[in-house]
Amino acid sequence: MDNPFSKLFKKQEGSVLGVDIGSSAIKVIQLKKKGSKAILETYGELALGPYAGVEIGQATNLSTDKIVEALYDLMREKEVNLTTNKCGISIPFSSSLMTLIEMPKLSYKQLGAMVPLEARKYIPVPISEVTLDWTIIPRDEREEEDLEEDEGTKITKIKKTDVLLVAIHNETIAKYQEIVNKTGLEASFYEIEIFSTIRALLEQEKTPVMIFDMGAATTKIYIVERGVVKTSHTINRGSQDITSMISKSLGITMAEAEIMKRSVGVTESNSVNIKDVVHLSLDYIFSEANQVILNFERRYRKTIGKILLVGGGSALKGIAQIAQASFQTDVIAGNPFTKTEAPAFLEDILRDTGPEFAVSVGLALRRLQEFA
Ligand SMILES: Nc1ncnc2c1ncn2[C@@H]1O[C@H](COP(=O)(O)OP(=O)(O)OP(=O)(O)O)[C@@H](O)[C@H]1O
Ligand SMILES: [Mg+2]
After folding, report:
1. Which of 24, 236, 264 to mutate to test the pocket of ligand 1 (most atoms within 8 A of CB)?
2. Which residue positions does the secretion signal occupy (predicted)?
3. Pairwise CA distance, residues 322 & 283, whole Å
4. Is the pLDDT of residue 49 over 80?
């Protein structure tokens, strides 16, 4: 098989890709640096269902070779017209283990020795099989007092440090390295998708924000405060469950149900039937998400300022209104293109398909920083 990436080896300065290999689709964004701006040059999406013998919109679990084949196909698409192989690639949230642990207040060096030992308690596989990373999460003053009162340690005043522990299985990293080697993509980093999404979406919000990323098989929830992930959670339902509910209840094929879901969504004009069916799936997801919010608000005694909807599932027409009714907080369609400039003719399409590209935009923005 000829490698369509090979012709790019010594191409174009200044352009970069963000490559998000999701469970149901690959999303790619190409940005270019112009002065201090990030200009959107092109973008592309390729459904992975057909590579796994399932319908478009369904989640897959593909071999490395199949992913390489799909990337080749995306690369060959004339309309997408990618012109660089420089990129950053995302690692699925599900391939990482992220947990907030509490450590005694120690020096950075002491923590460096202690965290890997402590990590054994939280990581269900041998430590030698994972790559570990950790960062100290600053506590603000008020939180510190609250927590001390909470734990009844007011008298002894034992100071604690919150540490965000991240582990990625070495096999996962090896898999992405193999994809890079076989495609000729030039990846300078692999990043867990949560951090890419945060980069694309968030500014300097003072209040905690919840990001709601609805994919095909799962919905991921992150609560972020001043750029730091405070809570993360995966709900085992996603947009493909809506498709299969529509298919079953109307007696139509999955392919037909997918088309119906994408074209009509849950707008007023729908038949009551579809609306009820879609509502049922969404209610389950929203109620679990509400539980996550409740737990966060109880633990930190803070309220969520807003909820941002991203992921292909969030492109469902009418979803924001239903979410708004379910959450006691402002719900906004996440727009990952606020930090980029796009040609006018792309604006409409980006408004509709935008939420799908949050991860890929965040990756490309990070890769662009390397030119600074
Ligand atoms: N316009 C639309 N209306 C409703 N649903 C849509 C629309 N466009 C895409 N979807 C659904 O979004 C889902 C895919 O979303 P997305 O591309 O964010 O998932 P993914 O990144 O592949 O999944 P994951 O992040 O879980 O690995 C599919 O189930 C698809 O049916
Ligand atoms: Mg995704």
Report:
1. 24
2. none
3. 9
4. yes
Give the model confidence (pLDDT) of 199-223 as tens digits.
Answer: 999 998 999 999 999 999 999 999 9
Q: How far is the CA of 153 from the centre of ligand 2 (A)?
A: 42
Atom from ligand 1 closest to the CA of residue 262: 3
CA of 86 to the centre of ligand 2 (A): 21
What is d(CA 61, CA 236) in angstroms, rounded to the nearest whole number? 15
Domain assignment present for 71: no
State in Å: Cα 44 to ligand 1 middle.
14
pTM score of the predicted model: 0.90
- Protein residue whose Cα sits closest to atom 15 of ligand 1: 312
- Indicate whether 110 belongs to any domain: yes
- CA 316 vs. chain centroid, Å, equals 17
Q: Which residues pair with 135 in a beta bridge?
A: 164
Domain-located, residue 141: yes
Q: Which residues are bridge partners to 210 per DSSP?
A: 223, 307
142 CB-near residues (< 8 Å, 6+ apart): none
Q: What is the count of structural domains for the chain?
A: 1
